[in-house]
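[Automated response] Your request has been received and processed.

Submitted sequence:
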Amino acid sequence: MDVFTIFAIAGCLLSGGVVYIVMQFRYFEQNQASSDKVQKALVEAASTKKKLLGYTKYLEFMEAAKHAVAGGPQALMAKVTREYVHVETIPKARFKLLADAKVIVKYQVEFTFGLDVSAQKFEVIDAANGIGLKMYRPTLSTAPVIKPVSHEIVSAQPLTDEKQVLTEIGQNFAEIARHYGTTMATEETVRAMCKLKVIEFFSSFLAKQPGVQHVPAIFAEYK
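Generated structure:
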């Protein structure tokens, strides 16, 4: 075999080796790129799954939220303050006056309304459009707190014991205020306020639970 033939064969082998190396390198790059794409897709899929789970995670804490509501009545109390004017006529014979006297008292009352959210009377429903809450209507929870604001006495002569007159009149305010509070419990504004208290409490509890990324709309209605 002459030298030219040897060099020709060697050249072919060398060229073939270079081509093989180049092809292997390109294959490695393509394989690495494919592997990176697969890894990226897996990471994105895991992230998406985690987010999706976060959107339904609240379902695991529905019962706990119900018990939290039942155990937190103080946080669900709705307070309403209103002012009233009481006018009462004092017969002249009562305090030996020359004529009847009129007493005008302005007073402020703080009413506290609450809901019976015990487990037997408070329902939680997982609905297609959110979470439904069902409860009994609000009632006056505690005795109204009465605070006198001002008073005026219209009389032909000064009362001999103004403090006693005001004290006697004020003794009726508790019963009057309780009657006002019972009536107020039926007002839509008061009922709406109590609903909002429960909705906010329930939503806040769910939102604070681990893994919860979304709390759906919450609807409340009275039985």
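Summary generated for your ticket: The mean pLDDT is 82. The longest strand covers residues 101-114.
If you did not submit this request, please reply to this message.
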